[in-house]
C-alpha cells in the first residue's frame, strides 16, 4: 500500500493544530452560565417571577446551582483542554439551557405576559447544541 508521507504529515499537523486551539465559544458559554447561575442564586425570586404560576414551586436555588456547576465544569474543561470535562459540561449546559428556554417560552406564550427572555435562552441553547454537534471535545 502506497502512502503519501507528506500528505499524512500535513493531515496530522492540522489535527494537532485544531486540538491546541482555544475554544472561544465554549468559554463564552461557560462564563455566561456561571454568571446566570450566580445571578439566580444571589437574587432570590427573580428567576421564578418569569415562569408559569403553576411552576412557582420549582427549587430556584437548585436550578441556579445546576447552571453554575455546569458552567464551571465546562470552563475547567475548556481552560485545561480536558476532553471528558468538555463533553460533560456541554451536555449539562444543553440540558439546563433548554430547560430555561422551556420555562421562558411557556411563560411568554402561556398565562404570563409577553417577555423576550425566551429569545435569549433560545440563542444560548442553540449555541450549546451547535457546540455539542461540532464535537470540539473529541
Mean pLDDT across every amino acid position: 84
- Unreliable sequence segments: none
The best one-word shape is elongated
Order of helices and strands: HHHHH
Helix content: over 70%
Topology:
Layout: H1 5-20, H2 24-42, H3 60-80, H4 83-109, H5 117-134
Helix pairs in contact: 2-3, 2-4, 3-4, 4-5
Describe it for me?
This protein starts with a helix and ends with a helix. The chain is elongated, with a radius of gyration of 19 Å. The mean pLDDT is about 85. It contains 5 helices and no strands. The protein has helices spanning about 5-20, 25-40, 60-80, 85-110, 115-135. It has about 140 residues and is mostly helical.
Question: What descriptive keywords fit this protein?
Answer:
single chain, 138 residues, mainly alpha, 73% helix, elongated
Give me a quick take on this structure.
By secondary structure, the chain is mainly α. It has five helices and no strands.
Amino acid at each position: 500500500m502506497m502512502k503519501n508521507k507528506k500528505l499524512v504529515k500535513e493531515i496530522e499537523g492540522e489535527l494537532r493544530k485544531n486540538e491546541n486551539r482555544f475554544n472561544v465559544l465554549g468559554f463564552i458559554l461557560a462564563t455566561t452560565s456561571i454568571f446566570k447561575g450566580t445571578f439566580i442564586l444571589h437574587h432570590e425570586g427573580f428567576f421564578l417571577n418569569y415562569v408559569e404560576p403553576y411552576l412557582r414551586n420549582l427549587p430556584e436555588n437548585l436550578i441556579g446551582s445546576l447552571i453554575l456547576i455546569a458552567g464551571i465544569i465546562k470552563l475547567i474543561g475548556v481552560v485545561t483542554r480536558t476532553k471528558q470535562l468538555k463533553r460533560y459540561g456541554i451536555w449539562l449546559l444543553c440540558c439546563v439551557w433548554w430547560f430555561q428556554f422551556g420555562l421562558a417560552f411557556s411563560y411568554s406564550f402561556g398565562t404570563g405576559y409577553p417577555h423576550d427572555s425566551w429569545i435569549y435562552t433560545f440563542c444560548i441553547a442553540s449555541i450549546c447544541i451547535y457546540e455539542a454537534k461540532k464535537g470540539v471535545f473529541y
